[in-house]
Amino acid sequence: MSIENFKIKISQELFIDLNERLVRTRWPDEVSNTNRNYCTYLSYLKS
User: Fold this and answer.
1) 41 Cα distance to chain centroid
2) Is 33 left (phi over 0), alpha (psi -120 to 50) or beta?
3) How far is the C-alpha of 10 from the C-alpha of 6, rounded, in Å?
4) Helix or strand (DSSP H, E) at 17
5) Rounded to the nearest 5 degrees, what angle is found at the Cα of 40, between the Cα atoms of 27 and 22?
6) pLDDT higher at 42 or 16
7) What is the pTM of this model?
8) 6-31 burial, b if ≥16 CB within 10 A, otherwise e?
9) Does an H or E element contain 12, and which?
């Protein structure tokens, strides 16, 4: 099996829409008194 290049055509409007949705993300509150065994850190998730 070999790797083959491919291209995906996505309109600029879809990228704009995605960006607007990401900007409006409603982040949850940080879960306190936990460690990474239960969840990820919110700061890490945002990055």
Assistant:
1) 14
2) left
3) 13
4) helix 12-23
5) 30
6) 16
7) 0.54
8) eeeeeeeeeeeeeeeeeeeeeeeeee
9) helix 12-23
Residue 13 is encoded by which pair of tokens? 């409007």
Question: Which pair of structure tokens corresponds to residue 7?
Answer: 């291209």
- Is the pLDDT assigned to residue 24 strictly greater than 90? yes
Q: Is 3 helix (H, G, I), strand (E, B) or coil?
A: coil
Q: Are the CB atoms for 43 and 27 separated by under 8 Å?
A: no
Distance CA 5, CA 41 (A): 35
Give ∠ CA 21-23-26 in degrees, rounded to 5.
Answer: 85
